[in-house]
Amino acid sequence: MSKKVFVTGGAGFVGSHSCKAFSKAGWDIVVYDNLSRGWSEFAKWGDLIEGDLLDRQALSKAIRDTKPDLVAHFAAFAYVAESMNHPGMYYQNNVQGTVNLLEAMRENEVKNIIFSSSCATYGISEQLITEETPQKPINPYGASKMMAERVIQDFEQAYGIRHFILRYFNAGGSDPDHEIGERHDPEPHVIPLAIKGATDESFKFQINGRDFDTRDGTCVRDYVHVCDLARAHALAGDYLIDGKPSQIVNLGTGQGTSILELANAVSEVIGRPLDVSYVDRRPGDPPSLVASCAKAGDVLGWKPEMSDIDTIVRTAWEWMEIEKGRTL
């Protein structure tokens, strides 16, 4: 039986890797992306429809024309610092965009959605985070994701649209086949910035804050390889198509890496020193975010396979070298 997935934000980092995973799992793919933060050349699997979630008419027409069995919703703004400076933009895009998508699904009788949510919905937690950990976001990005989750749950109550919400932690790495990778302009993410600090003498890698209540004073994060995240989305798609009940799960490794430890890993993997400087904390940054992935294992049979920090750094570095046109 053919299966078709409509992927919003499928030309972005996690979305494009998930499209590859969906393709491997036998899905037909339609990507819907406004390309404001995605790349047309990353839409390698299936057709690309250039469109915006805030354009209700175009969105509904795209779903009506393509008749998907499942929607996978990645399209969102996702930078904590930007959300602190421009909260309205985040609520409009991430929350209203999700409302528009669900309305388009309702109008066209599409009954399954996977939602790309975030550890940012939890805020500050000193314990290993489970799905029962209270959600207390401390920045507009996390709040917008939590609000979108609530909207999705309300649409199930009202219209029977089942969901699989994946709250994932810090995505990193790149496709080991080098077909796609992480590309942002400008680049806000810590792993590419650390790699740039080790490979570009003109660039100084900065760590935001050294006085957090962590083992070395720098933020601790749970890094998950983007290919592990992508595989979870394909598993969640098959789960929903099988008619099983809605779920919410974390995607993490249970192991935290501090920013300073990450910098040291980059130096070791690349074989070059990484000189760091410290600057002020960023508003909205929690000290530590580390997740239990036990429920993902129980529900999906998922566990991280590529998420050791060395593999994440190595595959990210390989992609960045290819992006610069170098030969590995």
TrEMBL record:
One of its GO terms (molecular function) is UDP-glucose 4-epimerase activity. Its cofactor is NAD(+). Keywords: Carbohydrate metabolism, Isomerase, NAD. CDD domains: UDP_G4E_1_SDR_e (cd05247). Pathway: Carbohydrate metabolism; galactose metabolism. The keyword Isomerase applies. It comes from the Bacteria. It catalyses: UDP-alpha-D-glucose = UDP-alpha-D-galactose. Gene3D superfamilies: NAD(P)-binding Rossmann-like Domain, UDP-galactose 4-epimerase, domain 1. Residues 5-252 form the NAD-dependent epimerase/dehydratase domain. Pfam families: Epimerase. Its EC number is 5.1.3.2. Belongs to the NAD(P)-dependent epimerase/dehydratase family. Homodimer. This is UDP-glucose 4-epimerase. The lineage of its organism: Bacteria, Pseudomonadati, Pseudomonadota, Alphaproteobacteria, Hyphomonadales.
